Amino acid sequence: MSHVEADTPSPTTTTETNARTMVEVRELVKSYGDFDAVRGVSFKVRRGEVLGFLGPNGAGKTTTMRIITGFMPATGGTVLVDGLDVLNDNMKVREKIGYLPENPPIYLEFTVRENLDFVAKLKKIPRSERAGRIEYAMERCGLTHVADRICEHLSKGYRQRVGLACAIVHEPEVLVLDEPTIGLDPVQIQEIRALIKDLGKQHTVILSTHILPEVVMTCDRVVIIHRGTVAADGTVDELSRQVGGKQRISVRLEEPNDQVIPRLKKLDGVEDVVPGPYPGRYQITVSEGAAAANEISLEILNAGWGLLEMTDDAPSLEEVFVQLTSM
Amino acid sequence: MGGVLTIFQKEWRQYFLSPVAYVILVVFIALSGFFFFDMFSYFVQTQAMSQAQMNPAMADQINVNDMVLTPLFHNLSVLLLLIVPVVTMRLYTEERRNGTDEMLLTSPVSEWAIILGKYLGALAFYALSLALTIQFPLLLAKYGHPDIGKVLTGYLGLFLMGSAFLAFGLFTSAAAGSQIQAALWSFAVLLGLWIVGWLAEGVTGTAGDVMRYIAMLPHFDSFAGGEIVLQDLVYFATFIAFFLFVATRVVESARWR
């Protein structure tokens, strides 16, 4: 199993790294009876980063998040939030974290404003700041026009937003979001993603999901967990390269031509050329990225084959994911 | 302690956003009104009869305290057995069903504050239902001479016994998987605490003593009869503290599951 360390601190740079690390998960283990849901998970989240926490269902995402938020203690290992241990400094850590569990924890018989008011009091926001923070949270989540509606009458998407507003009302340094777009319709999903991306500008965000485009769109970095362990850790690009190994380029020409395969194969850096799924399409495996791409395009232009399209076929996160989680 | 107040306010508000609260209040007042009417009319009949018979010895025994107040308090105590499980059943089961327990347990409040806030919310609601029955002793006071001391100790007894029931109900709500389970469990066990007193009558020795101490009703009887007995105060206080403690532990244990 491969492992990309995006942030490996050497002993000399430890203090510098800690200053930038907001959440540090160290060798986390969680057992339910005989079953080990999490088996030695370690990763770091830097201040101001949006981390995608990815894994198939049952990989241990929710368990890890519940440990980070202090909802449940770990069987082994530690979690530090802004340098504070979630177990020993439980109450202080809770003030720093905003948590949106999979099902938005809201009281359906309360209005949006009442829910936020309750959470604001619970999170110990001083009375003088409370009203302002509530207004701000509602505005950020697009709830101002439904402020006095009873949550029971709101759609799933709006309830999700109320949950998100409750999670940010005390301006936590860390936002932990467990599958925030599950069960929403496509429009709502777009809205929530945009909101998360926006929130990521001010908060450190850990976002769990099994929806891959969501990660590509919203996250700076990805941690993939599988069967309770970290299968990969890095940016989307890093992971693609790591799994893909060789770069692939696909081209689309006006007409299929017998000459294409033999002539392109002769070029420097081109390892293989195969016909693509449609006539006129070819997939080229190259060993050296940019230089080979230049050669290929020149060759096609010189031959007059009519280049319609040329794309970098980096393996998608789907491929990375499938490859890593099928091991 | 700010957390306790916040939770208390939330619980109090939630009671009145649910139709169940109004049903409880109406049932409680209607039934206690019925009991009062029933006992009062029996009292008036007996009094008329004794006057007709010109029996001064009997007339002495016929007074509103023994014939109306004490039985009224006893009947209300039976009513508590049915009402309290309904008052407490949703307290924690609903949090778990909604997933809001996860929010509470990741907020900077202790499990103690959560349980105490919820308990006080339920207690306030119960105190309100009890307060609405004060009209019956007031009616007696307008047309007769009830023993005010007895009225006060009777209410103190009802309040304490209800408080004990509520503590137990909150515990079942924290432990049970659904509202119905919580209500049935608290009803069954509270009924058991009732019955154990009857069973104890035929039991001698230490076993009998223990059963009599555990039984709820004897501790209430002294209050209904106009007395405040320290031992009974201690019984209720211990009972409440114990079950609030257990409820807190049950809530904590959710973290380990």
Q: Return the structural class of chain B.
A: mainly alpha
Helix content of chain B: over 70%
CATH architecture label name of the largest domain in chain A: 3-Layer(aba) Sandwich
Radius of gyration of chain B: 20 Å
Question: Into which percentage range does the β-strand content of chain A fall?
Answer: 25-35%
Question: Which two chains form the greatest contact, residue counts included?
Answer: A-B, 31 and 26 residues
As residue ranges, the low-confidence spans of chain B are none
Work out the helix count of chain B: 13
Low-confidence stretches of chain A: 1-19
User: Which CATH class of the largest domain in chain A applies here?
Assistant: Alpha Beta
Spell the H/E element sequence of chain B: HHHHHHHHHHHHH
Order of helices and strands of chain A: HEEEHEEHEHHHEHEHEEHEHEEHEH
Estimate the global geometry of chain A from the Cα principal axes: elongated
Count of DSSP helices of chain A? 12
Describe the structure.
The complex is a heterodimer of chains A (327) and B (257). Chain A is built from 12 helices and 14 strands. Chain A has a 6-stranded mixed sheet, sandwiched between helices. In chain A, strands 2-1-4-5 form a 4-stranded antiparallel sheet. Chain A has 327 residues and is an alpha/beta fold. Chain A has 2 domains: 224 residues, Rossmann fold; 71 residues, 2-Layer Sandwich (Alpha-Beta Plaits), CATH 3.30.70.100. In chain B, 85% of the residues lie in helices and 0% in strands. Chain B is mainly α and 257 residues long. Chain B is built from 13 helices and no strands. In chain B, α2 runs antiparallel to α4 and α9 packs parallel to α13. Classes of the chains: A alpha/beta (327), B mainly alpha (257).
